[in-house]
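thoughts on these tokens:
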Amino acid sequence: MTSIGILGAGRVGTNLAAKLAAAGHQVTIGGRDVSESAARVAGLDPRIAVADQRTIARTADIVINATPGESSLDRLTDLRADLAGKIVIDVSNATRDAADGLPGDLCYPGGSLGEKLQAALPDTHVVKTLNTMLFMVMTAPETLATPPTVYVSGDDENAKKTVIGLLGDLGWKPGWVEDLGDITTARATEAMILVVPHVLRRNGFTPFAVSLAR
């Protein structure tokens, strides 16, 4: 059993929390407001704990960043000391919204949120993954008609192996995992978010992932 903390109690965070708790992990989740976070996890697995984000960062073995990508860098930089020596799994995309509220542009063109986080948290192992699909696919990849791909980027090989193990707990088969290399490769997968709003506008909120076909 691994102690997993999730920063962000929206759809992504709560979805991940439920699946990881069901897999037997000790899960704590929290957004900016603890009482609001508690309300959002009510009715989910009763084993999911709720705490403030600093407590989560300080006490969890592995921390998942599911906060809004445009503000993630500031939030996690503030937790630098608490996150030292830990794995941070970054599943967010840093984008600026278009007029309809869907992603319209990247906050870090020519770079990535994953790279920015690693630079700001030099004592932390940042691994980028799960950011190229709708949130429901993160925990139920087997529901898609075509085998999907989940990409992994990070500088530390052991950290990536640990994260790939957690992906297995979320339902990802080994053949669906594509290790792209170091954290600089996150700029490629983060750029994939730009195709997502166009698909959503044409097809609605139907589950899909941006995947490789072989």
In short: The two ends are 35 Å apart (CA to CA). The longest strand covers residues 3-7. The mean pLDDT is 96. The longest helix spans residues 157-169.
